[in-house]
Amino acid sequence: MNRPRELALLLVALVTLGLTACGSSGSSGKLSKADLIAKGDEICRQARDKGTKLPKVQSYAGFKQLGPAAAKIIDDTLSKQKGLTPPASVKPDYDAYLDNVAKQSELAHKLGDAAKIGNDQSVQKLLTEASRNVAKGRSLARKVGFKLCGNALGR
Questions:
Q1: Cβ(25)–Cβ(81) under 8 Å?
Q2: Where are the alpha helices (DSSP H) in the chain?
Q3: What pLDDT shows up at residue 19?
Q4: How far apart are CA 151 and CA 137, in angstroms?
């Protein structure tokens, strides 16, 4: 697989994992675990749709646009996620999950920046780190109880 294509696929995975925001619960109270999971999984379905609409790239030049677009989606999602109040039974796992999404956002920004300047060494290092982070995100999503979230492109 060529490096730009690998970057594009990784960013789609980052976006998909990052887009598990559940939106507002409609009140300031805690969501039930079932509501958190249902809302999160619905947003993951939407994330799959958004992720598949990101432009396909075959070069670093194309990735210069993809990186910021993916990072913006993750950032917007994280903002929504932080507005949720999970039940106490999953709060530690949910907080760890949010930390992972924040890391995904950071990596998406860094990957985009590295691609902009064509820094192959940084891109490779970031790809390795991002790959580990994606795997960790899947595990954390499952610990919270998400069924769709955490699966690459919702599959």
A1: no
A2: 3-18, 33-53, 60-82, 91-117, 120-144
A3: 45
A4: 9
